[in-house]
TrEMBL record:
Organism: Bradyrhizobium aeschynomenes
Top-rank lineage group of the source organism: Bacteria
Keywords recorded for this protein, A-Z: Membrane, Transmembrane, Transmembrane helix
Transmembrane parts of this sequence: 12-35, 47-72
Protein name: DUF2798 domain-containing protein
Length: 81
């Protein structure tokens, strides 16, 4: 393990989530370049650009999204028997 203090878990989450999302989206967007033979280089450069853009957005948006998710959901009540 890297030993990153837990207080930075928000940033670790944001890096992983934005990286994975951008990796998949860039791969899908790069599919047309498959026939031209430059799929891998197109995919990786697209992913890097998308990740550099999305990482700060996810870091800033995640707390608000978590708060909204709490507002839109409720605690589960124990099943009365």
């Amino acid at each position: 393990m890297l030993g990153i203090p837990r207080r930075y878990s928000h940033f670790v989450f944001a890096a992983i989530q934005s990286g994975l999302t951008c990796f998949v989206a860039a791969g899908i967007a790069s599919l047309p370049s498959f026939a031209m033979g430059d799929f891998l280089s197109n995919w990786l450069s697209s992913w890097l650009m998308a990740w550099a853009t999305m990482l700060p957005i996810v870091v800033m948006a995640a707390p608000g999204i978590r708060s909204l998710a709490v507002v839109l959901t409720r605690d589960e009540q124990p099943d009365p028997k």
